[in-house]
Design brief:
The protein is of the alpha/beta class and about 325 residues long. The chain is built from ten helices and twelve strands. A hairpin with a 5-residue loop joins strand 1 and strand 2.
Length: about 325
């Protein structure tokens, strides 16, 4: 069993340095994946209300607690506030709804999923979450006040952000009563985010790295989009040097950049491989080789949000 080392957050809480991602985990699959992950040592599970699978994940977590595999306090459960619940008065009830879905008393980390607030027309499409939605100009600083209330009530031990750029993060920090502990953003060899990582580190905010393999299963992929090839000879060669796969090389690279990767998988052997990255270290030369993949190749660009208030990926360097 491999248990990831712990990272200390700015509020003294501890977060495992690698977690299981659960976006696009199919119904019926995610419960098995989470149970297997916990059995082999995962303690950090990354979720979101948007993903539509909090109930299944909660069943898996509660089963593993009930059978003695793990104690609740050993787990680090993360979920996120979706864009249609940004109004301050909606934050606490939405957090409580997630807790009801999980069947848990508290979250270890609650994140604002995006800085952009929306209203939705019709039903939410989990695979295409920005479809049929209308942006509204609601200040995420007000949303943050609702997040702080979740801490006051004890229903979230820590709070943070997701997909916030440097200027947006700085603005939250200037207005926060309770400091965000985390900014969860896309990080992969194609988009290594070194400037944002450095910016956050200087302010004692950790970075969770989502889509570490470039999100190959994303439903909105278009011809010509940057592709991170896991059979790239340079990655394969580095892997052979350490007797590791290309995916393990990528995860180790992200850890050495100072991030907390959350690879998603429902495949038992891949779940096992993904956490088996703490028994080797990439050399400086190997880090430089993986650095060379960086092309600012964002996979999750949320193009439907362009032009809306607080869209994070335009008009700012990082």
């Amino acid at each position: 069993m491999v248990v990831a080392p712990l990272v200390t957050l700015n509020n003294g809480k501890k977060c495992p340095q690698l977690g299981l991602g659960t976006w696009l985990s199919e119904p019926g699959e995610v419960q098995k994946a989470v149970k297997h992950a916990i059995e082999i040592g995962y303690r950090h599970i990354d979720c979101a209300m948007l993903y539509g699978n909090e109930k299944e994940i909660g069943e898996a977590i509660r089963e593993k607690i009930a059978d003695g595999t793990v104690k609740r306090e050993e787990l680090f459960i993360v979920t996120k506030l979706w864009n249609t619940f940004h109004e301050r008065e909606k934050v606490v009830p939405t957090c409580k709804k997630s807790l009801k879905n999980f069947g848990l008393d508290y979250l270890d980390l609650y994140l604002i999923h995006w800085p952009v607030a929306q209203k939705i027309k019709g039903e939410l499409n989990i695979r295409l979450p920005f479809k049929d939605s209308v942006g509204i100009d609601y200040d995420y600083v007000e949303t943050w006040k609702g997040m702080e209330e979740c801490v006051d009530l004890g229903i979230a031990k820590s709070i943070g952000l997701s997909n916030f750029n440097s200027k947006q993060l700085e603005r939250v920090l200037k207005n926060a009563r309770i400091k965000p502990v985390m900014n969860q953003v896309e990080v992969s060899p194609n988009l290594n985010q070194k400037k944002l990582i450095q910016f956050c580190r200087a302010r004692d905010v950790q970075i969770t790295a989502y889509s570490p393999f470039g999100s190959p299963a994303r439903p909105w992929a278009k011809p010509g989009d940057p592709v991170l090839r896991l059979d790239d000879p340079k990655l394969v060669k580095i892997g052979q040097k350490y007797n590791k796969t290309a995916c393990q090389v990528i995860l180790r690279y992200l850890i050495q950049l100072g991030t907390i990767p959350i690879p998603k998988s429902s495949n038992p052997s891949r779940i096992e491989q993904n956490i088996d990255v703490f028994d080797f270290e990439l050399s400086e030369e190997d880090m430089v080789i993986v650095d060379s993949f960086n092309c600012d190749g964002r996979a999750v660009h949320a193009e439907e949000l362009k032009g809306l208030p607080h869209y994070p990926f335009e008009g700012v360097e990082f």
